[in-house]
Amino acid sequence: MRWDRLFDDLESQLDHEQQEEERALALESERLRIGRLGLRDRLSAVAAAGGDAGAVRIELVGGSIVQVRPAAFGRDWMSGHLGAPGSDATRAAQCVVPIGAIAAVL
Known about the structure:
By secondary structure, the chain is α+β, with helices and mostly antiparallel strands. It has helices at 2-36, 39-49; strands spanning 56-60, 65-73, 77-82, 94-98, 102-105.
């Protein structure tokens, strides 16, 4: 009887360790997938979120910092509206930013 409980316990420990290993592998593959995303893909995901989360502050190579609500993306550029979220989009200045001109996303 005691042996049965011992083997059941060992089996459950092995199952638990296998599940943890599978979970760790899944997390690592997701980290690798996200790490391969380019800046354009990340910015388009922010734009898809929309709302207040749709605005990003970017630092350009020249050192200036602008707040942009991305609207459209090309192969190596993005366009959007300058200004804070909630501002009137019809009056907001529009811009086109080359992806290569972005030094950092703040």
